[in-house]
Amino acid sequence: MGSTTVKAVVVDPETKDIVWSDYQRHHTKQAECVLDFMVRIGQILAELSCDDVRAFITGSGAKPLEAPLGAKFVQEVNSVTLAVETLHPDAGSVVELGGQDAKIIVFKENKQTGDKSAIASMNDKCASGTGATIDKCMIKVGMPSEETLELHFDDAHLHHVAAKCGVFAETDIVNLVKTGIPSDEIMCSLADAIVMQNLSVLTRGNTLRHKVLLLGGPNTFLPFLQECWRKRIPETWDERGYDYPKDVPIEELIPVPENAALYAAYGAVMYGMHEPAAVGVYKGLDGLRRYITEGRKERLGESAGPPLARDEKELEQFLGAYHIPMFIEPEAATEKVRAVIGLDGGSTSSKAVLLSEEGEVLMKAYTLSKGNPIQDSKELLAELRGRIRAKGAELEVLGFGATGYAADVLEECVRADVNIVETVAHMMSATHYFGDVDVICDIGGQDIKVLFMENGDIKTFKLSNQCSAGNGMLLQAMADQFGLPVTEYAETAFQADLAPKFSYGCAVFLDTDRVNFQKEGFSKEELLAGLAQVLPKNVWQYVVGVPRMAALGRKFVLQGGTQYNLAAVKAQVDYIKERVPNAEVYVHPHSGEAGAIGAAMETLRVVTRRGSSRFIGLDAAIDLQYETKNDETTTCHFCANNCSRTFIDAFRPDGSTSRYISGFSCEKGMVESKGAMEAIVKERRKIMKEFPNLVTYEGLKAFKRVAGVQPMPDAGTQIEDVKVERKFFGSIERTNYMRTFQRSSEQAAEQRANWRVGIPRVLNMYSTAPFFRTYFEVLGVRPKNIVFSDPSSEEMFAEGGKYGSVDPCYPSKVAQAHFHQLFFHKHEKSPFDAIFFPILTHVPSFVTDAVDYASCPIVAGTPDVMKAAFTKEQDYFENRGIEYLAPAFSFTEPTLLKRDMFDAFRDILGMTEDESDFAVGQALEALDRFDEDIQAKGKAILEQVEHDDKIAILVLSRPYHNDPGLHHGIPDEFQVLGYPILSIRSIPKDPEWLQRFYGEGEDVLSVNDVWPENYSANSAQKVWAAKFASRHPNVAILDLSSFKCGHDAPTYGIIDSIVAKSGVPSSSLHDIDANKPGGSIKIRVKTYAHSLKIREEHLDDVASRKAELQRRIDEKRLELLRMKQEQLAAHRRADLGLERQIHELTEKVGRYRIEASKAAEDATLSSAVSESLIRLGKKTKDGKVVRV
Amino acid sequence: MADGFEIDIDEELAAFEAEERARLGLEDDREQWTDAMIDPFFSAKERPTTTILNGGLTMAHDEFVASALKGIGYNTRPMDCADVEALRFGKEFGNKAQCNPTYFTVGNLVKELSRLRDEEGLSAQEIIDSYVFLTAGACGPCRFGMYVTEYRKALRDAGFDGFRVVLFQQQSGFKQATGEEIGLVLNPQFFMALARGLFAGDVLNVLSYRMRPYEVEEGATDRAIGEVKREVHEALQENRSVLRALWRGRKYLEAVELDRLRAKPKVAIIGEFWAMTTEGDGNYHLQRFVESEGGENDIQTLVNWLLYTLWEMRHDTERRMTLRGTDESYYGLEGSDVGYKMAGVWLGELALRATFATFSAVAGLKRNKLPDMDEIAKVGHSFYNNELRGGEGHMEVAKLVLNVAKQKANMTLSVKPFGCMPSSGVSDGIQTVITELHPDAIYCPVETSGDGAVNFYSRVQMYMFKARERARLEHQAALDTYGITEDQAREFLKRSRYAKTFYKAPHIVAGTSADIIHEIGPLVGKGRLGRTKVHATRAVTRTKGFVTADLRHAKKTFDKMAPYLPSLGRLIYVELKEKLPAPKAAWQTLMRRAVPKSEESAETQIPTTHEYTPTPTPQAAPNPETLRLQVVS
Q1: H or E segment and range at residue B447
Q2: Contact B149 A1011 (CB under 8 A)
């Protein structure tokens, strides 16, 4: 009994033959389907009594039917394993894709006994790589099912589909559909992504043994999926040197057995053969019938909660207060309607509004996205024009503004006046209607935006990334499950008397819950109510992660298309009011069009100020001709990524044309010719040079040679040593004495020079590589023989990310790809003697008085995990003659470090202990010099921005986020906007320098006042950096954490508190992972840039007010001095000093006036000239800033 | 006026500047956040009106600890076992991306306080004033090891800002916070009470997991254990002897009839500490589930964990004591007296083993060998570096190896919360090599997320099937070895001492039934003479084993400990000097003679009295000087 189908077999226990079998979709009526089967089975076994029949059941839905049937439940993987062992004794492995799970079984042979044991792994927590994902995506692609049965796998044109999560995959598929990619290419890309996902994750690093049986619905029925397995599995075999018969046809090596769908059922019977005769004796149909009619209902109470409304009265009250009145278009008063148009091109739908010059909504239009933003916009505009004309009037468009994902292309094609980011558009719209609001919660079809407001502007905001938990799609999908129009959702949900308690979180998990609840017998109404109730939890707890809602304020505005669903609104309002007792919760009167209204309002402001519009005009926009092209000719070849781009060429009626390019992953893809690309890259580099990025600098510099290393002392040089003795009572006595420095032989030195080591450029290497490189170099290892793997990249991970048996955070997981690169690329070019990846239990840190300076347990343990991954099936090190070195070191104990370094390398490098100790000393100094260099640059930036009243962005991250493959270029996005980027290491740690930002008596390098449990060195550094940013007026925060980061988790609340109290601008991404969330990053960057601009304006204001204060004080002093002079004069006394002061101050005050008039002139000039760029500067002792 | 004139320019200007600053909005209004809940104070005066809440271990432990503290004069109350509702509280008020144990334990406290507020009608302030929560201090380095941060955050966000979480440190000694002003005095009396509760909990837990799978009448074990617990509770609450209570409890246990000939797989539960110890929703009642699936649980005790922390201290000190200098760090030996520290560790280990052995002997727990931590470290190191800490460290990997190599269990079940850093992130990756080296191992790693119990059970079932098969084969193989049938064995067992509740057959293979068959097999069908011969042979083998293995092992341990015997003497001297003033003078004379002159200066540094130590604030690194007996929650 699976999640979608019921399969049954009747087996003769003597012959083990299948007497009868069937396979049916149960349409969530599992028990009924089983009853039907049992009735039919009863007919063919009519001559037997119940006692002669034994039943064994398996599958995700089987357990509740165990008692009613008298059957014995058998775990699915056991069933499948037994079926395969019985029917295919020669099988080496099994891949079964089910509806909501995927299983891989590998049969391993015990070489001594010859026994086979099955190693099974099962993905039952996540929808990635399961039939459910394929089902959902097939609907999105819109390919008829008969066509999918004919489709063949072709890897010529594969596109990126993230199979890591079912929801991510769906998003990618939708985007591919929208960019016009042919559906067969999309389906093949999906198959490839799913196969690769299962091969890289579900195999847990095991190699599938032949022959590989493909089981389960999708594998049985989809030929292109079978072909994809048959292509990819042998590739992994070749890659790993697995020996398989090359002469056997691939269909025999990787077969899809007949009746593959029945294997689990058959296996359950085989299991039954092992059970005593009394087990699983069939009880007949009565129990099952009773279960269907009564039993299920009885169980409901356990997992159910209250309904959406307790009683009719409550519901009426709610509907009275929150029913959104129908929008009635105002009649056209004149023949000419003058208005601006705002358009919100969303991912699932596009909306447009017509806004009068007075800001009144005149008309709204809506269309479901058809994949092309230009086409959608043209249709919307045509609709608006048509409807105005139908009223007998003519539309005069004063301006056109766009927001949403279509805004960029519209800005280019129809010369939109405004292209604003969605968050700002929503904010403008909400404040227009509700004034000073505290929180705006916008729930759209695909994403959730929650804006936290302060003083009429966005203070911070939270966005759902690509995760669809809590969005409108979820409700839509649920309504679809019951064939219910979404407009009837609320009405239906309000009818429920109770509601199942869904556990909040991932949308796919919710769907699993839905299936389970349905199995338990909850009705459609109850399920709809339960899901509406879980929505606010998903929004506030899962996406937003705000525990104390009352701290956010009391005025909440709900908007976005989902608010038309009153069941969702009711749940939201109840949730908010329960937590914020005096809350005022409003629903935007134009919920779905809030973004478009915001864009229109901004357009109104812009065109009024500018006095004209650059929009090509309504008719021209409607008649716009365009061509979309996505083929080999549009692929970007400017780098190895080979992005598949889409060109949209627009031909305006006036004969002008424009080309909009989408689908690229870096700036190089923005243009077509090499010359243009070079020009863009040059321009970008120029900006990057002007605004330094110390994250990038530090990430590169860490792996370069560090200058200033002292040469090794000669043999015989006098050095001080320590003699260690243990005394009778256990104490240790250490005595200093002098002796000569010992050098190793020349032969050993020669061997060291030629010793070649590969080091993965990952994790703690980002903070300690200068140490290890210097150590090796001081000992005489040639610099070119110290080889680091390349920085991480998506391609690197795609190629080498298949060895892992565990699924930790991406920074740790990516290490395997670095090993792969070292083995298969670097070693191939010039062989290594060793690969070195130390276990660093403790890492260097500047935070004082911390409890400990521990490294993250996963990060520290990764070298041992890598050893396991690369030695378990075959020893990749031994096969290549490479020694793997993963000794443990602690950077908080220099004395211990010295000895451990010597112990680790004495046999390999043949040096003396003196030489090793000297090298460690030099290496530690090199690490200090590395710090000094970065800090000098950081100091220069900080002093410059302070002087210029500008902002620098401090990236709060762990050192290894300096890896561009980990931070996905997010800091660079801000850099090109003109913000210098600081890393934590780059902040000067000189207490004297820091002191002026801290209160008296504060320990400037400690975090104990906010986090005493600071065991984690890197997390404590992040907390410290947040403290620093909250004290430096010119620093803003960009907080990056990897998905699943356990060491950052305890600090989220602390950093939030620090940021909230001090009001330092901050943007955080706490779930960065393997894939780059391009769209989400763009919205974040744009919105955060908006906040930063406001912060800069504030800094400017403060600077001018400070200048005014100085002037006013000087004027006042002059006034007081003059009064004093008069008083003295009255007593016939004079004071020469006083006279001099008055003279000087009079001159100074005079200068203020001249400066003020000059400043007014300059202001007019400067508006024409671009703002001065921040350049690196240094503060001199007298306070001036000079260029460096 | 200094110069006799009316205007004081500086004063006027200062006032003017202040006014102008206010007018221009230039006052420095940036506030900085500091955590006001860091140093909670619970005073002695508040003791009578304050209830100490405790929780987080197995129910037996939590309840015994509460009773033990009651016995020494505190108002205590154990909290309920953390359930799904607690998880919901934890998730709502905790940080995102926390692990399950954090959500469950932190959520459980918030849940309890919310209940006091919403159901008992106490105001938040009343709760803050009249309740404190007692737990072990954070120990790093995984996120669960830093859970104290999370308690503060969740309490603050749930509206209990200022609620006191009182800590005792795992790595510190027996005397952490003493003084007349302090509400919870962390003195030896406190730790002894704690230890009595913990040892009794451990022993009864092991006994109940041993008995329950084989009980003839369902529920008999739970009823009997309940009676013993009642006896223990009464003793603890009245500060009477727990050993006596355990002794009295034996009669209830002895009355439970067991059938140990049921072939049941022994399932060793390892993994993350909290996930494997809790007995509620936190691991989906894993232990009961294993039993319902026909298995016998081999659980981890708290004593094992204590032994591990002692091993850590010993290992870390030994590794550093011969260095050319001392480092100032968490593990560094700067400022610590190595001899004294090592003596404390050895004494701690001896005391722990001896106490546990005593509790076991009295309660009827036989042949329950505590693990040899050196062996575990040695076995684990080549796969999982001994220097790696967090969670169970190398123990998880080593335990699997030993379970397979020494046939200690039919199946090893490693339970951990979803995304557990040391367990899912590291150990599971390394275990794949172990299963590759030992293809016969039945190893089931399983994660708990709080939801999705169905999948969790399904996964465990998948492996239990294999384990049952294995146990059945093992059972049959044992019968075949001696050529007897199960009925013969059963008949033999009737009325024999081997059928008694407390009897435990020597370890030969993993399963209990197979072990007992191996024990009685040679005796079945034999006459008195034959049986005597078998017993005599066994006595010889046992003696041989004692001489070749146990004595050797004891000697090895003694050799390791021997260099610290003088330090041990010094430690005992210091302690006794305080406890027993009468022989103090005699000791002093003796010691003066024993200690060479050069040592005297060192001796003066040794703390000789129980000086007042202020409440340890979590930011202060544990003082190595106070390292004596380890106590852990």
Answers
A1: strand B443-448
A2: yes
